[in-house]
Amino acid sequence: MSFEPHVPHLAYAYCRELHRQYKFDFYLSRPRRSRLGDFTTKPGFTPRITVNVNLNPYNFLITYIHEVAHCSVYRQFGGLRRKKVAPHGLEWKREFTRLLHPVMNEEIFPADILQPLLRYAINPKASTGADHVLYNALKKYDDQSFQLNKVALLHLIEGTSFVFQNRLFTRGTLRRTRVLCTDKVSQRRYTIPAHALVEVC
């Protein structure tokens, strides 16, 4: 697997080394709405990691290491030494932070990503999307072509109509990291991530 051009140049060798050390199959995935990457295992098969092909190099690298941390935890606690561990529990947090450490420097990440990444790595959450500062820093480096006319839901005024996943909604109140919104057709209410990109009507 060639990691060019998916991760920053100075991270190529590290990504290849993780691939060699933890022995998993690696695949690029089409863009998925629900996840940036995943780690899966089946009895008798090599563990598998996928990462969405459309991620910018910095987000790709973080996501890749996130999934390798799952593989590392599996290698330590799976199989004959099986131990119940939470998917994003203490064991994963420790491994993710440990595996991030070699790349958390200004040679690989720009300063506007590195600073929130260093804070995030102290107690990483299941998704970088849960850390709004890091999420917004990463989004700055996305391909802007698909974001034309879109804005983060968080920045809309209550009562504004918008389109999300081809459905028409009205923006409601903020509830921590999600926004309560109303489907204008069915009148059903849904919570949508505050950082989701939506198209204003």
Q: Order of helices and strands, N to C?
A: HEEEHHHHEEEEEE
How many discrete domains? 2
Q: Return Rg in Å.
A: 18 Å
* Average of the residue pLDDT scores: 89
Strand order of the largest sheet: 4-9-5-6-7-8
Structural class: alpha+beta
Number of strands: 9
How much of the sequence lies in strands comes to 15-25%
Helical residue percent band: 25-40%
Protein described:
The protein has 201 residues and is α+β, with helices and mostly antiparallel strands. The chain is 30% helix and 22% strand. It contains five helices and nine strands. The chain has helices at 12-22, 57-77, 90-100, 111-120, 132-139; strands spanning 25-29, 37-40, 48-52, 150-152, 161-164, 167-175, 178-183, 189-193, 197-200. The chain has a six-stranded antiparallel sheet, with no helix packed on it. A three-stranded mixed sheet has the order 1-3-2, covered by helices on one side. The longest helix has 21 residues, at 57-77. The radius of gyration is 18 Å and the shape is globular. The chain starts with 11 loop residues before the first helix and ends with a strand.
Can you tag this structure with a few keywords?
201 residues; alpha+beta; 2 domains; six-stranded antiparallel beta sheet; 30% helix
Topology:
Layout: H1 12-22, E1 25-29, E2 37-40, E3 48-52, H2 57-77, H3 90-100, H4 111-120, H5 132-139, E4 150-152, E5 161-164, E6 167-175, E7 178-183, E8 189-193, E9 197-200
Parallel strand pairs: 1-3
Antiparallel strand pairs: 2-3, 4-9, 5-6, 5-9, 6-7, 7-8
